[in-house]
Design goal:
elongated, 7% helix, 1 helix, 11-stranded antiparallel β-sheet, Lipocalin, 250 residues, mainly beta, 11 strands
Length: 250
C-alpha cells in the first residue's frame, strides 16, 4: 500500500511538471498606494544638512513583464518599473547649496527600473513555483529644494545601479484560479540594507483560451537604509502600502 501511494505521489509530481509552461509571457500594470517615512543627512566637509519626511501618502504607477523561454542554460527575464516620491523639511548646508538657519521643503522622485535575470528552479511542480536570480535596480533620482526666504532653490539628479539578490515563490491553489505569490530583492553590507518586498493574491479569468487576463492585489514595502562611515549621505527611508492592478498571461 505504501509503495502504491508513493508511486501515485511521484506520478502527480511528474504530471504537474509535465504541464509546466516552457515558454510564457506575463505582463501587468497597476497603482501602488504608498506611504513614506524617513530621514536623511549630509555631512561632507563640515556640512550639516538634514531632511525629515512629511510622511505623506501618494499613488504611483507600476508595470512589469516576465519572459520565460525553454533554453535551460540561459536565464529567464523579468522587467519592472515603478517610482517613489516624498517631500519633507530640509535645513542646513548640503554639497552645493546652503539653506542656512531657515527651513525649506525638499522633494524627491526616484524612478526605478529593475532588470532581473532569473532561473526557474520549480515551475508549478506540485503547484509550487520558485525563481532565483539577481536584480539590477537602476535608480533615477531627482530632487529639488524649494525657495524659502533668501534661499533661491536648488535642483539636481543622479542615476545609479544597485545589485540585489532576487527570490520569488508562488503557490497555485489546486482546483481554483487563485494564486498566492511573494518576492523579495535584498542586499545588506556593513551597516546598510536595501530591500524591496511584495506579497500578493491574484485571480485568473480563464474564459479566453490564448490570453488569460487576471487581477492582482497585494502589499509592497521598500526600505533604503544607508549608514556607512565612508559615505557622505546617510539615509533611512521607507515606502509601503497596498497595490492593485491587471495582468495577462500568454
Amino acid at each position: 500500500m505504501k509503495k502504491i501511494l508513493s508511486i501515485m505521489a511521484c506520478g502527480a509530481i511528474l504530471a504537474s511538471s509535465a504541464s509546466a509552461d516552457f515558454t510564457r509571457v506575463e505582463a501587468g500594470a497597476g497603482a501602488w498606494m504608498q506611504s513614506s517615512k524617513g530621514t536623511a543627512s549630509y555631512t561632507d566637509a563640515g556640512a550639516n544638512g538634514s531632511y525629515i519626511s512629511n510622511e505623506k501618502d501618494s499613488t504611483q504607477p507600476y508595470v512589469w513583464m516576465l519572459i520565460k523561454h525553454p533554453i535551460p542554460i540561459l536565464p529567464n527575464l523579468r522587467l519592472e518599473y515603478t517610482s517613489v516620491k516624498d517631500d519633507g523639511a530640509a535645513t542646513g548646508k548640503f554639497k552645493d547649496f546652503n539653506i542656512g538657519v531657515a527651513t525649506t521643503t525638499l522633494s524627491y522622485d526616484i524612478k526605478q527600473y529593475d532588470i532581473i535575470p532569473y532561473y526557474n528552479i520549480l515551475d508549478n511542480t506540485a503547484w509550487i513555483t520558485l525563481d532565483l536570480g539577481v536584480d539590477i535596480k537602476i535608480l533615477d533620482a531627482s530632487y529639488r529644494a524649494a525657495p524659502s526666504g533668501a534661499f533661491t532653490g536648488y535642483s539636481d539628479s543622479a542615476m545609479l545601479a544597485v545589485p540585489l539578490l532576487y527570490a520569488r515563490a508562488r503557490v497555485q491553489i489546486p482546483s481554483t484560479n487563485i494564486g498566492i505569490e511573494s518576492d523579495i530583492k535584498y542586499l545588506t553590507t556593513g551597516n546598510s540594507t536595501v530591500y524591496d518586498f511584495r506579497a500578493k493574491v491574484d485571480y485568473t479569468l480563464d474564459f479566453v483560451p490564448v490570453v488569460q487576463p487576471a487581477v492582482e492585489i497585494g502589499y509592497r514595502t521598500q526600505k533604503i537604509d544607508i549608514d556607512e562611515s565612508g559615505v557622505d549621505v546617510k539615509a533611512n527611508v521607507e515606502f509601503s502600502g497596498f497595490y492593485a492592478g491587471m495582468m495577462v498571461r500568454f
